[in-house]
Amino acid sequence: MPLSKRSTLTQFLIEERRRFPGASGDFNALILDVALACKAIARAVAFGELGGMLGNHGESGASINVQGETQKKLDVISNDMFISANNWGGHLAGMGSEEMDDPYQIPGQYPRGKYLLVFDPLDGSSNIDVNVSVGSIFSILRAPQDVIDSGRDIKAEDFFQPGAQQLAAGYALYGPTTMLVLTVGNGVNAFTLDPNLGEFKLTHPNIQIPADTQEFAINASNSRFWEAPVKRYVDECLAGKTGARGKDFNMRWIASMVAEAHRILMRGGVFLYPRDTKDPSKPGRLRLLYEANPVGMIMEQAGGRASTGREPMMGVMPTSLHQRIGLVFGSRNEVERIERYHREPVAQKDDANPLFAERSLFRD
Ligand code: F6P
Which residues are CB-contacts of 157 (< 8 A; sequence separation ≥ 6)? Predict the structure, then answer.
């Protein structure tokens, strides 16, 4: 393929920027720094055990992150890569990460900029040791004006902006190929890393998610903790042609949200990690600021939808940096159906659900 046939990420960003004659170039430079971190993580992931990259972090006994989850070596390495690629450029007022309890302050020797970067450096990291796709997710916000004016240290509250205010969002998927999927608020474009050039090339312009689907993704081991509208939805999918939906459904669960989001972008589908009753202290499993919001923006920009089940994800006002939330995203008509089920009064009894019925798969 001759060089000129596909845009590189740099060319794509420069051409996008021409739509904004006043733009300084800071934003593009920031995205390219994030892309550099993703390329570095892709290499680390690819070396796996050969690079001593697998296993838990911590010499003696595993260390636990702010989420109460075991940190893998690659979680910590990926976090360091995000920081070192992004802390020096003068574009950021600060960063937030799944792997850091508190906001990251830009070191004194570097200038501070007008953006905030919040990320999960390696999502699905429980899959690393079994060589299944993992990814990085990021969201870019504008820093509050007083942060920009004063250059003061950032606080968690500075990130408390609804998803609708994200300036850009994206993820890198470390699968059979490394891909960067990006929205800067003007559709969704996906780039594949050309291993010969070390450059992301535009391979999937203007992605659109089909509005309908026959594929759903949910961790069914949590079924006894689901709320009634989710039980009803899954029950109807499982009932297939013979049930209310009148069509058969397929099910997938990779346990790597980036990989699930990518599958849905490529061929449609719906993903649910809903609020449930498993642990009353956790209103959902996934994190609002660096999982639900960036994936939500990507879905909506591709014509799909993202929701808590009860309300549009993009409207939720965050109240903490590491806030968890119920998340449903994917093909628009399915997500809207799930939202409708949450609004409708519940007329179902558990034993009407094949998941719990006498001869069901999930009954012990
Ligand atoms: O956020 C972490 C994550 O690994 C997601 O990528 C994934 O969708 C989910 O957790 C998997 O959860 P479970 O272990 O319940 O299947």
Answer: none
